[in-house]
Amino acid sequence: MLKSVLRFATGAVLMSAAFCASAAPATYKDFKVSGVLQEIPGPSARCASNFGGTILGFGTSSLVGNKVTFLATDCITPNGTSYTFSEGKFLITTLTGELIFANYSGQFVPTGVGTKFVFSNATFQVTGGTGRYANATGGGDITGGEDMATGQGTIQLSGRILAK
Question: What is the DSSP letter of 50?
């Protein structure tokens, strides 16, 4: 009799634990990140153009707990008076330490004002992350710009993300 009670109790505890640990369903949410960036261009062996950029920055996002930092790397190819950036890898770190991974691409187009360029036809695709973003998907548009002489600029990611 005691064995039956113990088996029942053990089963109940395991079922309760499984129920509590079950993941909430993923839902689509608006995803926005706004921030400032510093790009460091230079040689990149991984790029067909042998030239790329590393981007560091910080900003805010209402979805992921307000403050975020980000790190990105891409390949840069001259295209007339503009530049194409491709094979971009974006890593966003939230205040809680969770990560969001994304790919991105687009163009830098001159504004006609000194060495200032703006992003054009720039998009991102969320490819996953950690924590509640482990299987995240989604994407959207990238806007902003950069002073090519200093590497300083602003960036906004705006789209939708499917996450828990």
Answer: S
Instruction: State how far Cα 145 lies from the chain centre.
Output: 17
The pLDDT assigned to 67 comes to 95
> With contact defined as beta carbons under 8 Å apart, do 95 and 118 qualify?
no
Helix (H) or strand (E) holding 4: helix 2-21
**Which residues are CB-neighbours of 122 under 8 A, at least 6 positions away?**
85, 104, 105, 106, 107, 141, 142, 143
**d(C-alpha 119, C-alpha 55), whole Å:** 14
Domain topology for 24-163: AOC barrel-like (2.40.350)
- Whole-prediction pTM value? 0.83
User: Rounded to 5 degrees, what angle do the CA atoms 100, 101, 104 make?
Assistant: 130
Domain boundaries, the chain: 24-163
AA letter at 31: F
State how beta strands 137-147 and 152-163 pair: antiparallel
- Give yes or no for residue 63 having a pLDDT over 70: yes
Can you tell me whether residue 132 is helix, strand or coil? helix
Strand partners, 35: 59, 155
